[in-house]
Design brief:
By secondary structure, the chain is α/β, with parallel strands linked by helices. It is 41% helix and 16% strand.
Length: 449
Protein backbone atom coordinates (compact mmCIF):
# COMPACT_ATOMS: atom_id res chain seq x y z
CA UNK A 1 0.00 0.00 0.00
CA UNK A 2 1.37 3.42 -1.01
CA UNK A 3 1.57 6.30 1.43
CA UNK A 4 1.62 4.37 4.68
CA UNK A 5 2.97 7.42 6.50
CA UNK A 6 0.17 9.76 5.47
CA UNK A 7 -2.46 7.06 6.14
CA UNK A 8 -1.13 6.85 9.71
CA UNK A 9 -1.35 10.64 9.94
CA UNK A 10 -4.95 10.56 8.70
CA UNK A 11 -5.83 7.93 11.31
CA UNK A 12 -4.57 10.30 14.01
CA UNK A 13 -6.74 13.03 12.52
CA UNK A 14 -9.76 10.67 12.52
CA UNK A 15 -9.30 9.96 16.23
CA UNK A 16 -8.71 13.58 17.23
CA UNK A 17 -11.11 15.07 19.77
CA UNK A 18 -11.13 18.47 18.04
CA UNK A 19 -11.09 17.37 14.42
CA UNK A 20 -11.57 20.02 11.73
CA UNK A 21 -12.18 19.54 8.01
CA UNK A 22 -8.85 18.54 6.51
CA UNK A 23 -7.40 20.11 3.37
CA UNK A 24 -4.94 17.74 1.72
CA UNK A 25 -2.26 19.84 0.00
CA UNK A 26 0.08 18.48 -2.62
CA UNK A 27 1.30 18.89 -6.17
CA UNK A 28 -0.58 17.23 -9.00
CA UNK A 29 -0.08 13.49 -9.41
CA UNK A 30 1.08 12.91 -5.83
CA UNK A 31 -1.81 10.53 -5.18
CA UNK A 32 -4.24 12.60 -3.12
CA UNK A 33 -7.35 10.82 -4.43
CA UNK A 34 -5.76 7.38 -4.09
CA UNK A 35 -4.72 8.06 -0.49
CA UNK A 36 -8.23 9.11 0.52
CA UNK A 37 -9.76 6.05 -1.15
CA UNK A 38 -7.38 3.83 0.83
CA UNK A 39 -8.16 5.71 4.03
CA UNK A 40 -11.92 5.39 3.42
CA UNK A 41 -11.65 1.69 4.31
CA UNK A 42 -11.71 2.85 7.96
CA UNK A 43 -15.34 4.06 7.63
CA UNK A 44 -18.65 2.32 7.18
CA UNK A 45 -19.79 5.01 4.69
CA UNK A 46 -17.77 6.90 2.08
CA UNK A 47 -18.95 9.69 -0.22
CA UNK A 48 -16.68 10.98 -2.98
CA UNK A 49 -17.66 14.27 -4.60
CA UNK A 50 -15.65 15.38 -7.63
CA UNK A 51 -16.40 19.04 -8.21
CA UNK A 52 -15.26 18.85 -11.80
CA UNK A 53 -18.64 17.15 -12.29
CA UNK A 54 -21.50 19.62 -12.60
CA UNK A 55 -23.91 17.45 -10.58
CA UNK A 56 -21.54 17.31 -7.59
CA UNK A 57 -20.72 21.01 -7.82
CA UNK A 58 -24.41 21.92 -7.72
CA UNK A 59 -24.77 20.61 -4.17
CA UNK A 60 -22.98 23.78 -3.07
CA UNK A 61 -24.88 26.25 -5.24
CA UNK A 62 -28.44 24.90 -5.29
CA UNK A 63 -29.18 24.70 -1.56
CA UNK A 64 -29.47 27.57 0.90
CA UNK A 65 -28.17 26.01 4.10
CA UNK A 66 -25.60 23.50 5.30
CA UNK A 67 -28.47 21.29 6.54
CA UNK A 68 -30.07 21.06 3.11
CA UNK A 69 -26.69 20.51 1.44
CA UNK A 70 -25.73 17.58 3.67
CA UNK A 71 -29.16 15.99 3.48
CA UNK A 72 -29.12 16.27 -0.32
CA UNK A 73 -25.66 14.69 -0.54
CA UNK A 74 -26.60 11.77 1.72
CA UNK A 75 -29.88 11.27 -0.16
CA UNK A 76 -28.32 11.36 -3.62
CA UNK A 77 -25.55 8.93 -2.65
CA UNK A 78 -27.93 6.64 -0.74
CA UNK A 79 -26.18 6.98 2.63
CA UNK A 80 -27.71 6.91 6.12
CA UNK A 81 -27.74 10.14 8.13
CA UNK A 82 -27.83 8.18 11.38
CA UNK A 83 -24.32 6.91 10.52
CA UNK A 84 -22.90 10.38 9.95
CA UNK A 85 -20.27 9.92 12.67
CA UNK A 86 -18.82 6.98 10.74
CA UNK A 87 -18.94 8.69 7.33
CA UNK A 88 -16.05 10.15 5.35
CA UNK A 89 -16.99 12.90 2.90
CA UNK A 90 -14.25 13.57 0.34
CA UNK A 91 -14.60 16.78 -1.69
CA UNK A 92 -12.18 16.40 -4.59
CA UNK A 93 -11.15 19.26 -6.93
CA UNK A 94 -12.60 21.70 -4.40
CA UNK A 95 -10.97 24.64 -6.19
CA UNK A 96 -13.75 24.36 -8.77
CA UNK A 97 -16.28 25.73 -6.26
CA UNK A 98 -15.63 28.78 -4.05
CA UNK A 99 -19.00 28.01 -2.45
CA UNK A 100 -17.75 24.58 -1.32
CA UNK A 101 -14.59 26.15 0.13
CA UNK A 102 -16.68 28.70 2.07
CA UNK A 103 -18.93 25.94 3.39
CA UNK A 104 -16.02 24.11 5.08
CA UNK A 105 -16.38 26.34 8.16
CA UNK A 106 -19.98 25.21 8.61
CA UNK A 107 -19.04 21.56 8.39
CA UNK A 108 -16.77 22.26 11.37
CA UNK A 109 -19.24 24.43 13.32
CA UNK A 110 -22.55 22.66 12.64
CA UNK A 111 -21.63 19.08 11.72
CA UNK A 112 -18.45 18.23 13.67
CA UNK A 113 -19.35 14.51 13.65
CA UNK A 114 -18.96 14.30 9.87
CA UNK A 115 -15.40 13.59 8.74
CA UNK A 116 -14.54 15.89 5.82
CA UNK A 117 -11.43 15.87 3.61
CA UNK A 118 -10.92 18.29 0.71
CA UNK A 119 -8.27 18.24 -2.01
CA UNK A 120 -7.55 19.87 -5.35
CA UNK A 121 -5.14 21.67 -7.61
CA UNK A 122 -3.84 24.99 -6.34
CA UNK A 123 -2.25 26.26 -9.52
CA UNK A 124 -5.64 27.20 -10.94
CA UNK A 125 -6.51 29.31 -7.91
CA UNK A 126 -3.07 30.93 -7.87
CA UNK A 127 -3.33 32.00 -11.50
CA UNK A 128 -7.01 32.79 -11.65
CA UNK A 129 -9.76 33.55 -9.17
CA UNK A 130 -9.07 34.14 -5.50
CA UNK A 131 -10.24 31.34 -3.20
CA UNK A 132 -9.66 31.68 0.54
CA UNK A 133 -9.99 28.77 2.95
CA UNK A 134 -11.73 29.70 6.23
CA UNK A 135 -9.10 30.67 8.80
CA UNK A 136 -9.14 28.59 11.97
CA UNK A 137 -11.87 26.26 10.68
CA UNK A 138 -9.73 23.83 8.66
CA UNK A 139 -6.41 22.05 9.08
CA UNK A 140 -3.84 21.01 6.50
CA UNK A 141 -1.61 18.05 5.67
CA UNK A 142 1.01 17.99 2.94
CA UNK A 143 1.21 15.08 0.52
CA UNK A 144 4.62 14.54 -1.04
CA UNK A 145 6.16 11.87 -3.28
CA UNK A 146 6.59 8.30 -2.06
CA UNK A 147 9.42 7.98 0.49
CA UNK A 148 12.15 5.33 0.29
CA UNK A 149 10.40 3.26 2.96
CA UNK A 150 7.15 3.41 0.98
CA UNK A 151 9.04 2.53 -2.20
CA UNK A 152 10.39 -0.62 -0.52
CA UNK A 153 6.87 -1.66 0.42
CA UNK A 154 5.53 -0.88 -3.06
CA UNK A 155 8.11 -3.03 -4.86
CA UNK A 156 7.65 -5.96 -2.46
CA UNK A 157 10.93 -5.62 -0.56
CA UNK A 158 9.35 -6.35 2.81
CA UNK A 159 12.50 -7.90 4.30
CA UNK A 160 14.56 -4.89 3.26
CA UNK A 161 11.92 -2.62 4.80
CA UNK A 162 12.03 -4.60 8.05
CA UNK A 163 15.80 -4.14 8.32
CA UNK A 164 15.56 -0.49 7.25
CA UNK A 165 13.26 0.20 10.19
CA UNK A 166 15.71 -1.25 12.73
CA UNK A 167 17.88 1.15 14.74
CA UNK A 168 20.75 0.71 14.21
CA UNK A 169 20.74 -0.99 10.82
CA UNK A 170 22.43 -4.44 10.75
CA UNK A 171 25.63 -4.43 8.67
CA UNK A 172 24.43 -7.28 6.46
CA UNK A 173 21.55 -5.14 5.13
CA UNK A 174 23.71 -2.22 4.01
CA UNK A 175 24.68 -3.26 0.48
CA UNK A 176 21.23 -4.32 -0.65
CA UNK A 177 19.56 -1.20 0.77
CA UNK A 178 22.22 0.98 -0.87
CA UNK A 179 21.43 -0.52 -4.29
CA UNK A 180 17.69 -0.27 -3.74
CA UNK A 181 18.11 3.37 -2.75
CA UNK A 182 20.03 4.06 -5.96
CA UNK A 183 17.10 2.59 -7.91
CA UNK A 184 14.67 4.72 -5.91
CA UNK A 185 16.80 7.81 -6.53
CA UNK A 186 16.90 7.03 -10.24
CA UNK A 187 13.13 6.68 -10.75
CA UNK A 188 11.89 8.95 -7.95
CA UNK A 189 8.80 8.80 -5.79
CA UNK A 190 5.88 9.86 -7.99
CA UNK A 191 3.19 7.23 -7.29
CA UNK A 192 2.40 6.40 -10.93
CA UNK A 193 6.10 5.91 -11.70
CA UNK A 194 6.63 3.70 -8.65
CA UNK A 195 3.54 1.64 -9.50
CA UNK A 196 4.72 1.19 -13.09
CA UNK A 197 8.19 0.15 -11.99
CA UNK A 198 6.80 -2.25 -9.37
CA UNK A 199 4.70 -3.93 -12.05
CA UNK A 200 7.21 -4.27 -14.90
CA UNK A 201 10.71 -3.38 -13.58
CA UNK A 202 11.18 -1.67 -16.96
CA UNK A 203 12.55 1.87 -16.91
CA UNK A 204 12.12 2.37 -20.66
CA UNK A 205 8.37 1.83 -20.32
CA UNK A 206 8.10 4.82 -17.96
CA UNK A 207 9.06 7.54 -20.44
CA UNK A 208 5.48 8.44 -21.37
CA UNK A 209 4.49 8.44 -17.70
CA UNK A 210 7.23 10.97 -16.83
CA UNK A 211 6.13 13.22 -19.66
CA UNK A 212 2.48 13.01 -18.57
CA UNK A 213 3.41 14.27 -15.09
CA UNK A 214 4.12 17.76 -16.40
CA UNK A 215 1.30 18.04 -18.93
CA UNK A 216 -1.31 19.18 -16.35
CA UNK A 217 0.93 22.12 -15.40
CA UNK A 218 1.24 23.21 -19.03
CA UNK A 219 -2.52 22.77 -19.41
CA UNK A 220 -3.13 24.96 -16.37
CA UNK A 221 -0.82 27.60 -17.82
CA UNK A 222 -2.88 27.60 -21.01
CA UNK A 223 -6.24 27.68 -19.18
CA UNK A 224 -5.62 30.09 -16.34
CA UNK A 225 -2.76 32.42 -17.26
CA UNK A 226 -3.95 35.98 -17.79
CA UNK A 227 -2.25 36.51 -21.14
CA UNK A 228 0.15 35.00 -23.68
CA UNK A 229 3.17 36.53 -21.93
CA UNK A 230 2.31 34.81 -18.65
CA UNK A 231 1.81 31.51 -20.50
CA UNK A 232 5.32 31.72 -21.96
CA UNK A 233 6.79 32.74 -18.60
CA UNK A 234 5.19 29.76 -16.85
CA UNK A 235 6.22 27.33 -19.57
CA UNK A 236 9.82 28.54 -19.39
CA UNK A 237 9.90 28.24 -15.61
CA UNK A 238 8.41 24.73 -15.57
CA UNK A 239 10.90 23.48 -18.15
CA UNK A 240 13.90 25.18 -16.53
CA UNK A 241 13.46 24.16 -12.90
CA UNK A 242 14.72 20.63 -13.57
CA UNK A 243 17.95 21.92 -15.12
CA UNK A 244 18.54 24.35 -12.27
CA UNK A 245 17.47 22.08 -9.37
CA UNK A 246 19.95 21.34 -6.62
CA UNK A 247 21.77 24.64 -7.15
CA UNK A 248 21.58 28.08 -5.63
CA UNK A 249 19.80 30.22 -8.18
CA UNK A 250 19.25 33.83 -9.11
CA UNK A 251 15.86 35.02 -10.33
CA UNK A 252 17.39 37.45 -12.83
CA UNK A 253 17.83 35.57 -16.10
CA UNK A 254 16.72 32.26 -14.58
CA UNK A 255 17.09 29.34 -17.00
CA UNK A 256 19.30 31.34 -19.40
CA UNK A 257 16.45 33.76 -20.12
CA UNK A 258 16.00 37.50 -20.46
CA UNK A 259 13.31 37.59 -17.79
CA UNK A 260 13.71 40.05 -14.92
CA UNK A 261 14.14 39.17 -11.26
CA UNK A 262 10.58 40.37 -10.56
CA UNK A 263 9.08 38.23 -13.34
CA UNK A 264 10.93 35.03 -12.46
CA UNK A 265 10.64 35.55 -8.71
CA UNK A 266 6.88 35.88 -9.03
CA UNK A 267 6.37 32.79 -11.19
CA UNK A 268 8.73 30.60 -9.14
CA UNK A 269 6.89 31.57 -5.95
CA UNK A 270 3.63 30.65 -7.66
CA UNK A 271 5.01 27.21 -8.54
CA UNK A 272 6.25 26.90 -4.95
CA UNK A 273 2.73 27.49 -3.64
CA UNK A 274 1.55 24.80 -6.06
CA UNK A 275 4.19 22.56 -4.39
CA UNK A 276 6.07 21.83 -7.60
CA UNK A 277 9.23 23.24 -6.03
CA UNK A 278 10.65 24.74 -2.86
CA UNK A 279 12.88 27.82 -2.67
CA UNK A 280 15.24 27.10 0.23
CA UNK A 281 16.77 30.30 1.56
CA UNK A 282 19.92 29.97 3.68
CA UNK A 283 20.59 31.11 7.20
CA UNK A 284 23.85 32.81 8.15
CA UNK A 285 23.40 32.49 11.90
CA UNK A 286 25.29 30.11 14.17
CA UNK A 287 22.87 30.33 17.09
CA UNK A 288 19.05 30.39 17.41
CA UNK A 289 16.84 31.67 15.95
CA UNK A 290 17.99 30.34 12.57
CA UNK A 291 16.08 32.73 10.36
CA UNK A 292 16.27 32.33 6.55
CA UNK A 293 17.90 35.28 4.81
CA UNK A 294 15.63 36.04 1.84
CA UNK A 295 18.13 38.59 0.51
CA UNK A 296 20.48 35.75 -0.41
CA UNK A 297 20.23 33.32 -3.31
CA UNK A 298 17.96 30.35 -2.56
CA UNK A 299 18.67 26.71 -3.39
CA UNK A 300 16.11 25.14 -5.69
CA UNK A 301 14.46 21.88 -4.57
CA UNK A 302 11.99 20.43 -7.06
CA UNK A 303 9.11 18.10 -6.29
CA UNK A 304 10.81 14.81 -7.16
CA UNK A 305 14.36 13.64 -7.86
CA UNK A 306 13.19 11.09 -10.43
CA UNK A 307 11.56 13.88 -12.44
CA UNK A 308 14.77 15.89 -12.08
CA UNK A 309 16.81 12.95 -13.45
CA UNK A 310 14.46 12.36 -16.38
CA UNK A 311 13.88 15.93 -17.53
CA UNK A 312 17.54 16.98 -17.14
CA UNK A 313 18.89 13.83 -18.83
CA UNK A 314 20.75 12.41 -15.82
CA UNK A 315 19.20 8.93 -15.68
CA UNK A 316 22.01 7.24 -17.62
CA UNK A 317 24.61 8.70 -15.23
CA UNK A 318 22.95 6.95 -12.28
CA UNK A 319 23.03 3.43 -13.73
CA UNK A 320 25.49 1.25 -11.82
CA UNK A 321 26.85 4.06 -9.66
CA UNK A 322 28.52 3.08 -6.39
CA UNK A 323 28.16 6.51 -4.81
CA UNK A 324 25.54 9.15 -5.59
CA UNK A 325 28.11 11.82 -4.78
CA UNK A 326 29.87 10.89 -8.03
CA UNK A 327 26.85 12.10 -10.06
CA UNK A 328 26.18 15.76 -10.95
CA UNK A 329 28.88 16.97 -8.54
CA UNK A 330 27.01 15.44 -5.61
CA UNK A 331 23.84 17.46 -6.25
CA UNK A 332 21.66 14.37 -6.79
CA UNK A 333 22.72 12.95 -3.42
CA UNK A 334 21.87 16.28 -1.78
CA UNK A 335 18.56 16.57 -3.62
CA UNK A 336 17.28 13.09 -2.73
CA UNK A 337 18.37 13.70 0.87
CA UNK A 338 16.26 16.85 0.93
CA UNK A 339 13.33 14.92 -0.50
CA UNK A 340 13.65 12.26 2.20
CA UNK A 341 13.93 14.87 4.98
CA UNK A 342 10.72 16.48 3.75
CA UNK A 343 8.96 13.10 3.67
CA UNK A 344 9.40 12.73 7.44
CA UNK A 345 6.86 15.40 8.26
CA UNK A 346 3.42 15.97 6.69
CA UNK A 347 3.06 19.47 8.09
CA UNK A 348 2.47 21.95 5.28
CA UNK A 349 4.97 24.27 6.99
CA UNK A 350 7.76 21.68 6.92
CA UNK A 351 10.72 23.07 5.00
CA UNK A 352 14.42 22.52 4.40
CA UNK A 353 17.23 24.60 5.90
CA UNK A 354 20.89 25.18 5.06
CA UNK A 355 23.66 27.47 6.25
CA UNK A 356 26.13 29.69 4.38
CA UNK A 357 28.96 32.07 5.03
CA UNK A 358 29.24 34.25 1.92
CA UNK A 359 32.71 35.75 2.20
CA UNK A 360 35.00 36.12 -0.80
CA UNK A 361 38.04 34.80 1.04
CA UNK A 362 36.33 32.23 3.29
CA UNK A 363 33.02 31.11 1.80
CA UNK A 364 31.40 28.07 3.44
CA UNK A 365 28.15 26.18 2.97
CA UNK A 366 26.45 23.39 4.93
CA UNK A 367 24.09 21.15 2.97
CA UNK A 368 21.36 21.00 5.64
CA UNK A 369 20.47 22.24 9.09
CA UNK A 370 18.14 19.66 10.61
CA UNK A 371 15.75 20.73 13.41
CA UNK A 372 16.01 18.32 16.32
CA UNK A 373 14.31 19.13 19.63
CA UNK A 374 15.31 22.75 20.22
CA UNK A 375 18.53 22.51 18.20
CA UNK A 376 19.70 22.64 14.61
CA UNK A 377 21.97 19.70 13.74
CA UNK A 378 24.46 20.42 10.91
CA UNK A 379 24.28 17.78 8.17
CA UNK A 380 26.69 17.27 5.28
CA UNK A 381 26.22 14.92 2.31
CA UNK A 382 29.77 13.87 1.39
CA UNK A 383 31.79 10.95 0.08
CA UNK A 384 35.17 12.05 1.44
CA UNK A 385 36.69 11.45 4.85
CA UNK A 386 35.76 13.55 7.86
CA UNK A 387 38.90 15.66 7.47
CA UNK A 388 37.54 17.13 4.22
CA UNK A 389 34.42 18.59 5.84
CA UNK A 390 35.81 22.12 5.76
CA UNK A 391 32.48 23.99 5.98
CA UNK A 392 31.23 21.73 8.76
CA UNK A 393 34.40 22.23 10.81
CA UNK A 394 34.23 25.99 10.32
CA UNK A 395 30.60 26.04 11.45
CA UNK A 396 31.33 23.95 14.55
CA UNK A 397 34.16 26.27 15.53
CA UNK A 398 31.76 29.22 15.45
CA UNK A 399 28.62 27.63 16.92
CA UNK A 400 27.52 25.95 20.15
CA UNK A 401 26.89 22.65 18.33
CA UNK A 402 28.89 19.61 19.46
CA UNK A 403 27.15 17.00 17.28
CA UNK A 404 27.06 16.70 13.49
CA UNK A 405 25.95 14.24 10.81
CA UNK A 406 27.64 13.11 7.62
CA UNK A 407 25.52 11.22 5.07
CA UNK A 408 27.52 9.10 2.63
CA UNK A 409 27.61 5.68 0.95
CA UNK A 410 29.36 3.98 3.88
CA UNK A 411 28.19 2.30 7.05
CA UNK A 412 27.06 3.68 10.41
CA UNK A 413 29.85 4.99 12.63
CA UNK A 414 29.87 7.38 15.58
CA UNK A 415 33.24 9.13 15.83
CA UNK A 416 34.92 11.61 18.16
CA UNK A 417 36.76 14.47 16.43
CA UNK A 418 38.29 17.87 17.07
CA UNK A 419 37.94 20.98 14.94
CA UNK A 420 41.05 22.89 13.75
CA UNK A 421 40.65 25.10 16.82
CA UNK A 422 40.54 22.11 19.17
CA UNK A 423 36.81 21.86 19.88
CA UNK A 424 35.59 18.30 20.53
CA UNK A 425 32.50 17.06 18.71
CA UNK A 426 30.73 13.84 17.75
CA UNK A 427 30.25 12.96 14.10
CA UNK A 428 27.54 10.48 13.18
CA UNK A 429 28.38 8.90 9.82
CA UNK A 430 25.41 7.13 8.28
CA UNK A 431 24.40 5.95 4.80
CA UNK A 432 22.35 8.47 2.87
CA UNK A 433 19.59 5.91 2.36
CA UNK A 434 18.80 6.37 6.07
CA UNK A 435 18.23 10.14 5.76
CA UNK A 436 14.48 9.59 6.11
CA UNK A 437 15.15 8.11 9.56
CA UNK A 438 17.45 10.83 10.82
CA UNK A 439 15.20 11.65 13.77
CA UNK A 440 15.29 8.05 14.97
CA UNK A 441 19.09 7.89 14.69
CA UNK A 442 19.55 11.17 16.53
CA UNK A 443 17.33 9.80 19.31
CA UNK A 444 19.54 6.70 19.43
CA UNK A 445 23.00 8.26 19.14
CA UNK A 446 22.79 11.86 20.37
CA UNK A 447 22.93 10.95 24.05
CA UNK A 448 25.55 8.19 23.61
CA UNK A 449 28.33 8.50 26.21
Amino acid sequence: MFKRQIIAELLRWKQSGDRKPLVLRGARQTGKTTVVKQFAANYSQYIHLNLERTADREFFTRYRSIDETIQAIFFQYNKKMEQIADTLLFIDEIQQSPEAVALLRYFYEDYPALHVIAAGSLLETLLGRSINFPVGRVEYRALRPVSFAEFLAAVGEEQALEQYNKTPLPDFAHEKLLQLFHTYTLIGGMPEIVAGYAKNRDLTALRNVYESLLLPYFDDAEKYAKNAAQIQLLRHAIRSIFYEAGRRIKFQGFGASAYSSKEMGGVLRTLEKAMLLQLVFPTTQTEPPFQPDIKKSPRLQVLDTGMLNFFSGLQKDLFGTRDLNDVYRGKIAEHITGQELLSENHSFLNSLHFWVRDKKQSAAELDFMFPYNSMMIPVEVKSGTSGKLRSLLYYLDNADAVFAVRLYAGKIQLEEHKTPEGKSFKLLNMPYFLSGRLNAYLDYFYTCP
